[in-house]
Amino acid sequence: MEKNIDWGALGFGYSKTDYRYVSNYKNGKWCSGEITTDDKVVISECACVLQYAQTCFEGLKAYRTKDNKVVCFRPDLNAKRMVESALRIEMPPFPEERFLDAVKQVVRANIDWVPPYRSGASLYIRPYMFGTNPVMGVKPADEYQFRIIVSPVGPYFKGGIKPITLRVPDFDRAAPLGTGHVKVGLNYAMSLHAIVDAHNQGYNENLYLDSKTRTKVEETGGANIIFVTKDNEVITPKSSTILSSITRRSLMYVAEHYLGLKATEREIHIEELKDFKESALCGTAAVLSPVGKIVDHGNEIIFPSGMENAGEITQKLYSTLTGIQKGEIEAPAGWIFEI
Ligand code: PLP
Ligand code: COI
Fold this sequence. Notes:
Largest sheet: 9 strands, antiparallel
Oligomer: single chain
Bound molecules: pyridoxal-5'-phosphate, 2-OXO-4-methylpentanoic acid
Distance between the termini: 17 Å
Number of strands: 17
Structural class: alpha+beta
CATH topology of the largest domain: D-amino Acid Aminotransferase, Chain A, domain 2
CATH architecture of the largest domain: Alpha-Beta Barrel
């Protein structure tokens, strides 16, 4: 029986659900894994994750479709990216096939928590892993836990589709040869001060620049960014120090193959922003959140689409992508994973 929740009132937060998936790594191998009701993690006070932040994670969603199926969107790409993240911080990767099976198990166990079709909410799925045994010298752990928790969520930015404001901060997110391209906890720890500061100053998010030249647009703390030019070309930053967003890759495909637009990944200089007509953040949590304004040290760029509504192309991209995710529009082969 579906849980008695006011789905439309949900924000993006953690609600404890009934079940989680856990597998432990010991003596060089992952154990078979299980679904459990135990929401507590008990590890050594000197665990590598606590001392040296050895942890990586993923984020994806389960949706109820028009014909009442429960599906995930391209989870194979999350499985693959998590392998890359794990390897970058010397963790044993969780096998991709097992990742998909674990997602299936944990969503099935929590099926009553999957919000109804058209409720505006979805079930956020958070796979993560961390080093559990004690280390004192700086080195990787020998033992790990892989875990998946789920939580019903609403929009990441309060106000849903209302355009947000970004500012260019005086902080960097990723070093040229650092960890910006993988989804490791340390990238988010170092963004916490910047996001609190942005919020204190009335901005919704930080738009980071490349840390080497501080001239090129990268991404925000939790999402990639797209722009629409005056010729209706959809462009997005090409950089080796941003996370390769699955939503962004999908949107670029949708722009080209569903909407017939030119879609280009290239370096984008901060001075170019004034020439664009629309912008939006994209990610699993953010979906496609319109950006109305970007403030770069007193220089305000207000996109012609304005602060009231999403721009025309942003709206089309949003409705096509979410239509594909919810089974209203035919998906490209392999994009929809049935639970
Ligand atoms: N960039 C960062 C820094 C993120 O944390 C996320 C969230 O996962 C994204 C981009 C969007 O990636 P995806 O579309 O795969 O969720
Ligand atoms: C996601 O979109 O899944 C993320 O992990 C972003 C996070 C900042 C909530």
